[in-house]
Write a structure and sequence with these properties.
single chain; 2 domains; four-stranded antiparallel sheet; two-stranded antiparallel sheet; 7 helices
Length: 179
């Protein structure tokens, strides 16, 4: 459900199934509990839309491709601050590990610690390997070992160096939005 202000009485949510996209309207009842209001819910039948749709310039756009792009860029967003190589590397990893396996999300592995993008970038720089290779190497070791590695003087110094270098920099993603 969308995050709403405490004084709001209406909120939106979406639910996607194999055959529909549902835009749900939720309203607070007298007790302050959110309830779906069926009369204000819009259900769109996916099978009524072709996969290829025509853009204003005449190009055919794959809705499946567009959805994959949007999902991967969203799920890789924590890597944006590390530059396009890290961002695209994470998107490729998710495509291979998740979507090509028929999964919408990666299976939960309990409370496994997330990979630190700064640690990934530092390992890639120190080992002269790609971000994807560093990510795979870090995924292969336990979280405790990753924490020890991050605390090693050379790694910690590289992380600080990368963070300092990134301060005040931005990555223009405008071109990506037009893909």
């Amino acid at each position: 459900m969308a995050k709403v202000a405490a004084d709001r009485t209406e909120s939106g949510a979406t639910a996607v199934t194999a055959t529909t996209v549902n835009f749900l309207t939720k309203e607070k009842d007298a007790a302050g509990k959110w309830e779906v209001v069926a009369a204000k819910t819009v259900v769109l039948a996916i099978d009524e839309v072709p996969d290829l749709v025509k853009a204003n310039n005449g190009d055919l756009i794959s809705l499946k491709g567009y959805g994959i792009r949007a999902l991967l860029l969203d799920r890789s967003s924590e890597f944006r601050k590390l530059g396009l190589a890290a961002y695209y590397g994470q998107a490729q990893d998710l495509f291979n590990d998740m979507l090509k396996q028929g999964l919408f999300e990666l299976p939960s592995t309990g409370k496994a610690a997330a990979l630190d993008p700064w640690l990934i970038e530092a390992v890639a720089a120190l080992q002269a390997c790609s971000v994807a290779q560093a990510t795979a190497a870090l995924k292969a070791i336990p979280a405790e070992d990753r924490a020890v590695l991050a605390g090693k003087p050379a790694v910690a110094a590289k992380i600080l160096e990368l963070q300092e270098a990134a301060k005040g920099t931005t990555v223009d993603l405008g071109g990506l939005l037009n893909l």
